Amino acid sequence: MENKIKTKDKILLEAITLYNEQGIQNVTSRHIASRMGISHGNLDYHYKTKEDIILAIYCKMRNEMSESYVTRDPEISAIGHFHLLIQQLEEFQYKYRFFNLDVLEVTRSFPNVSKIIQETFIKRKETTIQLFQEFISSGFLKEMEPAELQRLEHIIRMIITFWLSQREVMTSYNFSEMGSMVKSIWTILNPYLTESGKAEYQKAINNHGVTTISN
């Protein structure tokens, strides 16, 4: 059993590497097996289809990010926690960049993966809105109608989901350095922050910067 688990993990790691390098549509299970130096039958024993591989990778991704959503330093404010979260989300984009670049193809081609993605979006929406409601109760964010708050969360979710895709398409824009996604999200939020919220945001920037690279 131990060897099987190790092999399954190695397959996923190699698949992530190849998908990041070449894109999902250009990589088959035979390419992954060849790169690993194992038979296609060996790989097929663990993952019967391409969707099985992508589903396993997505579950791995979701588990990693779920930890970031729920793990919170009690000494850090809601704004500080959100700032660290979006830093990790941007870094996460590059770790699994194939998924963000090919998310439309994934949702169209792999129904089982698409279903779990939609379930994840619902959970992330609920968690983020709860966090924004904490911003309001802490005096960091101006009072907002529920529909307006949901629209704000939706805009930010679109930025996160399609950040790498827009970079590929909108090449005339210069927001490509690490930390640009974090800055863009705060640009959206800043007009809604109170004075104490802006002070707390500046504190988060001073303490943590805009990327996790130097932390």
From TrEMBL:
DNA-binding region coordinates: 28-47
Superkingdom: Bacteria
Presence of the UniProt keyword Glycosyltransferase in the record: no
- From the UniProt record, which GO molecular function terms apply? DNA binding
Establish whether keyword Aminoacyl-tRNA synthetase is in the entry.
no
User: What Pfam families does the record tag this protein with?
Assistant: TetR, TetR_N
Q: Which SUPFAM superfamilies match?
A: Homeodomain-like (SSF46689)
Key words of the record: DNA-binding
Entry-linked InterPro entries: Homeodomain-like_sf (IPR009057), HTH_TetR (IPR001647), TetR (IPR025722)
Ranges for domain HTH tetR-type come to 5-65
Name-wise, this protein is Transcriptional regulator, TetR family
